[in-house]
Design brief:
Strand content: 5-15%
Radius of gyration: 17 Å
Largest sheet: 7 strands, mixed
Shape: globular
Order of helices and strands: HHEHEHEHEHEHEEHH
CATH topology: Rossmann fold
Number of helices: 9
CATH class: Alpha Beta
Length: about 240
């Protein structure tokens, strides 16, 4: 079965939760980035329905491998389908991102990392901190939903990284932003793309310490209710 056919079926079967999946504009940008940078090792945090995974697989080099991580069990039929589509190039890990990054994948360095798992501030802070440890010069880090209503944590983490980069005379990252929007949705979601220029171990250790301190100081955030999300959408 062709990837486009599978993507269409996933979209049709899950229209009621489409806002939480990678939308068409996001998938288009991901494919564009994959085509430009031709990464061989790709990490996706937050498989969800597998829409982003398959979009990247469609244009990734034939010798590439995609490691995709999600702890949710609601969509196991899609996860099993991913492994069946291309067992050699897709490895799905049904684990938490903490477990995957600190244990299962701790030995791997990645060319491309797509961060799109839990969007609460402390979660995205940890995912980004743990992902940076697996980066090298030239690694592309993409953070999804920088403008998602009700979840400002992604934008906060991006801003923290930009401040650190500014203090280091912009020597750590190149970054640029995209405003993405699903045709069927009113709200923008947004993507932040960061290319690692130079991230020596001692700099990573400093960033790691800053993130750990912020994680300790900032109180935990409860996810917004459905009513709050509707309110956010109406006022945008």
């Amino acid at each position: 079965m062709k990837i486009n056919t599978i993507l269409s079926r996933i979209t049709q079967e899950n229209q009621h939760i489409a806002p939480w999946s990678s939308d068409l504009s996001t998938a288009t940008i991901l494919k564009f980035l994959i085509q430009i940078y031709s990464p061989r090792s790709i990490l996706e945090l937050g498989t969800f329905l597998g829409y982003g995974t398959l979009s990247m697989l469609e244009v990734a080099p034939s010798n590439s491998k995609i490691y995709t991580v999600d702890v949710l069990n609601n969509f196991l039929k899609y996860y099993k389908q991913l492994n069946q589509i291309d067992k050699k190039r897709i490895l799905f890990l049904n684990q938490s991102t903490d477990q995957a990054l600190s244990s299962s994948l701790s030995h791997v360095s990645f060319d491309f990392i797509f961060v799109d798992a839990d969007h609460l501030f402390k979660s995205i802070l940890r995912d980004t901190r743990n992902s940076l440890k697996l980066c090298k010069s030239g690694t592309i880090i993409v953070l999804h939903d920088t403008e998602l209503p009700g979840f400002p944590g992604v934008k906060y983490v991006v801003n923290i990284l930009k401040v650190i980069n500014y203090i280091c005379f912009s020597s750590l990252f190149d970054s640029f932003s995209f405003r993405t929007k699903d045709i069927k949705q009113k709200d923008f979601t947004g993507l932040e793309v960061m290319r690692v220029k130079y991230l020596p171990r001692f700099i990573y250790n400093i960033i790691n310490t800053i993130f750990i301190c912020i994680d300790f100081i900032i109180p935990s955030q409860n996810p917004p209710t459905k009513e709050e999300l509707m309110t956010y959408s109406r006022h945008r």
